[in-house]
């Protein structure tokens, strides 16, 4: 699962007004889960040694400050990814006291224990040192809304197979997921637990895991099944492997770093029994990666932005108007963990196994199920706590995989709206150079299931999603005098746009619209309800064609020229090189 709930605010929206002499920056509060943005909060601003005078030097100073921060971000990132090779051990020891692992935990640990804990943290992305020292059967707080406790469910519900997928997960974390599933799922409803090991290399996940499985099976014969991949297949195909091994009428597909809350299964099984075309997600709480405390999350739907990263959403208005916080929440997509009728899952096309490694499959499933006649919902009375890792073990950079997978979704399911995905990733719509693999089977599936259009989905299921139907161009704004610098949204703290070395990543992607006559940094706010406002009232704005320059008010020096790297609907200008739309994790 890739979603986090950290809410980053203050993204600048820059609107270039009539006459191109003013840049007015507006604020909106966006749900932005951008790694850099998150780290900006943690990294203290460096204090410059000396003050420079004048605008130009001030600008230079700001750029230097940004570079300093970027360096801090990189340093912090380096600390928290698994270390490889010789010599890095010493660096790890040297830097352990700076790790985020010790911000809220471990102050009393001796240096040797801290070294061990840090090494384990780097391997797993969470505090496995602590996990090894807390009970596999620990209770967690019952965070269900009050009304849930009074609901009764049908006496005969379908059985469930719970699938846990993992790669190089800490053994104690996997075992706690299993123990929690056994303790919270009524015995007669739990058919089996299937572990899918996606070719882990950790020694403890070999013999020792086998021993635990045998031990648990000696108490409840046949309860646990272990599927081991001979090569790494990625999260998406691992889930499908688990589904293939399952035999109960309902399958629950989860990560192996979760703890179930009381009574999680009955509400879900009952909803699926009523209608087998419902795919159901529990509500998620967070297990903090450092302290393992369970943190309550507000009830949410699950959506996505145009890069197809998942987002927690405010539940729809229709849900609020029920004034019943136990009612199912209609959701446009899924975060990644869900429960489904085993046969229906096959009929609807499982997951897109042509996707690679990680990302997008959850969004694709949500879109597909809705467009092809099913439904997707989140249940407030089914709660599961999940560890949001500090970093993921699959690969150090998931972005390329997520982008490729997102383009598959766009090409198969999104009709004319596929342009939005290309825009969000800042890649050309023709000859993107990205190999998305063969999508003919998925297109045939859509035809066979006679699915509705993506426009229908947006209007009826995901009305909160912003549409960019009046876009004239997108790309970066380059300075015509100094072509290596671009307009950038700038630090989050002051909300002032800056010039910065061109990198083409999200903070520099600008959009030129026909009706608002605006150039703005966008798509970080994926949905309407995360957008505060558009433009200040009273000013009459005129259309400004792409290619015009932004000039300094006094000197009339050309500051910026819109370089329409990508135009649509007719891409006529060559794409910028090196502006690959990379996104920070
Ligand atoms: Mn997860």
From TrEMBL:
Q: What is its main location?
A: membrane
Query: Which InterPro entries does the entry link to?
Result: GalNAc-T (IPR045885), Glyco_trans_2-like (IPR001173), Nucleotide-diphossugar_trans (IPR029044)
User: What are the subcellular locations of this protein?
Assistant: Endomembrane system; Membrane
Instruction: Please state what the protein is called.
Output: Glycosyltransferase 2-like domain-containing protein
Stored SUPFAM superfamilies: Nucleotide-diphospho-sugar transferases
Q: Which cofactor does it need?
A: Mn(2+)
Question: Domain named Glycosyltransferase 2-like: which ranges?
Answer: 161-314
Q: Which organism is it from?
A: Alosa alosa
Q: Mind telling me which residue stretches traverse the membrane in this protein?
A: 9-31
One of the entry's Gene Ontology molecular-function terms is: polypeptide N-acetylgalactosaminyltransferase activity
Residues covered by region (Disordered): 527-551
Which residue windows does the record flag with biased composition (Low complexity)?
Answer: 533-542
**Gene Ontology cellular-component annotations:** Golgi apparatus; membrane
In the record, biological process GO terms are: protein O-linked glycosylation
Q: Which UniProt keywords apply?
A: Disulfide bond, Manganese, Membrane, Signal-anchor, Transmembrane, Transmembrane helix
Spell out the family assignment given in the record's similarity comment.
Belongs to the glycosyltransferase 2 family. GalNAc-T subfamily.
């Amino acid at each position: 699962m890739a979603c986090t709930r950290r809410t980053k605010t203050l993204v600048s929206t820059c609107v270039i007004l009539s006459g191109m002499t003013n840049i007015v920056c507006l604020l909106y509060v966006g749900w932005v889960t951008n790694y850099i943005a998150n780290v900006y909060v943690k990294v203290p601003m460096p204090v410059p040694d000396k003050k420079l005078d004048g605008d130009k030097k001030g600008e230079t100073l700001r750029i230097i400050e940004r570079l300093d921060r970027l360096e801090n971000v990189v340093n912090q990132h380096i600390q928290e990814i698994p270390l490889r090779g010789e010599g890095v051990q010493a660096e790890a020891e040297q830097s352990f006291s700076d790790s985020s692992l010790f911000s809220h935990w471990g102050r009393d640990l001796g240096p040797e224990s801290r070294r061990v804990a840090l090494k384990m943290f780097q391997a797993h992305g969470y505090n496995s040192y602590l996990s090894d020292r807390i009970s596999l059967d620990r209770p967690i707080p019952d965070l269900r809304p009050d009304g849930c406790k009074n609901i009764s469910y049908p006496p005969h519900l379908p059985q469930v197979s719970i699938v846990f997928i993992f790669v190089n997960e800490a053994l104690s974390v996997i075992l706690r997921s299993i123990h929690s599933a056994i303790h919270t799922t009524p015995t007669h409803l739990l058919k089996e637990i299937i572990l899918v090991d996606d070719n882990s290399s950790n020694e403890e996940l070999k013999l020792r895991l086998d021993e635990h499985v045998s031990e648990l099976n000696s108490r409840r014969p046949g309860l646990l099944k272990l599927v081991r991949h001979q090569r790494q297949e990625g999260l998406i195909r691992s889930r499908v492997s688990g589904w293939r091994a399952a035999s109960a009428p309902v399958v629950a597909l989860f990560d192996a770093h979760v703890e179930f809350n009381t009574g999680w299964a009955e509400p879900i099984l009952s909803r699926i029994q009523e209608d087998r075309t419902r795919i159901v997600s529990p509500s998620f709480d967070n297990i903090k990666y450092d302290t393992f405390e369970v943190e309550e999350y507000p009830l949410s739907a699950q959506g996505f932005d145009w890069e197809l990263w998942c987002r927690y959403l405010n539940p729809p208005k229709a849900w609020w108007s029920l004034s019943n916080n136990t009612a199912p929440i209609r959701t446009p997509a899924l975060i990644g963990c869900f429960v489904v009728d085993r046969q229906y899952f096959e009929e609807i096309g499982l997951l897109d196994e042509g996707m690679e490694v990680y990302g997008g499959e959850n969004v694709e499933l949500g879109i597909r199920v809705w467009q092809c006649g099913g439904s997707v919902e989140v249940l407030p009375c089914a709660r599961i706590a999940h560890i949001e890792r500090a970093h993921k073990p699959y690969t150090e950079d998931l972005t390329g995989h997520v982008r490729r997978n997102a383009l598959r979704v766009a090409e198969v399911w999104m009709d004319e709206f596929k342009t939005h995905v290309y825009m969000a990733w800042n890649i050309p719509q023709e000859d993107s150079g990205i190999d998305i693999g063969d999508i003919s089977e998925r297109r045939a599936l859509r035809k066979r299931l006679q699915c509705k259009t993506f426009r229908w989905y947006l209007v009826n299921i995901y009305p909160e999603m912003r549409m960019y139907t009046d876009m004239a161009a997108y790309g970066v704004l380059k300075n015509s005098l100094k072509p290596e610098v671009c307009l950038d949204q700038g630090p989050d703290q002051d909300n002032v746009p800056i010039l910065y070395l061109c990198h083409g990543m999200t903070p520099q992607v600008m959009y030129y619209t026909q009706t608002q006559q605006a150039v703005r940094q966008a798509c970080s706010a994926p949905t309407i309800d995360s957008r505060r406002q558009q433009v200040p009232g009273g000013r009459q704005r005129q259309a400004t064609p792409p290619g015009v320059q932004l000039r300094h008010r006094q000197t009339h020096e050309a500051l910026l020229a819109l370089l329409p790297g990508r135009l649509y609907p007719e891409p006529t200008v060559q794409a910028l090189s090196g502006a690959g739309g990379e996104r920070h994790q």
